[in-house]
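hi! just following up on the protien thing from before. the input was this:
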Amino acid sequence: MPFAALIAAVALVPTPAPPMRCVEHVGCRATTPAMAAEPTSRRSVLAGLAVATSFSALPAFASVTPEGYKLKKNYPQDAKLMLDNMRIATELKRGDSNIEEIVKATRSEMNDFVAFYRRQPKVAGMPSFSTLYTAINTLSGHYASYGNKYPVPEKRKTRLQQQYKEIERGKA
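and the predicted 3d structure came back as:
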């Protein structure tokens, strides 16, 4: 650990307030702090180090969204991309390669899409958004219940494909 991080960790550790002493001629209501320097304990130094190392590891936990699953903040483009990725996730079969990665990326994109566009009145009122939102809920609910490795069953797949066609008609 670099020396600067060690110093920063020690600086983050809270130290007890210095004892207060009464000034004789004013009484005990007005106090001035005693300027006694207390040594830092090993426990407070180790606690500071623990805090510093835990914050330095935070970027390792950040998830990286694949390029084909990032929103462009343009509804027609994002809706088409969302629909294409949902179709890919719906068509996956048990045993397909990287099914879990595709499903995770699609679920993340669905969450981002809904979170971004649901608050925009111009977009949220569109029929294509309403149907897409329903399809997102259907697919997201499937993966929430069955996990990322279990493919969409035929009955649900048929309903989703019908919704995808409605979305295409609504966008055109």
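Confidence is low (pLDDT under 50) at residues 56-62.
The longest helix spans residues 127-146.
cheers
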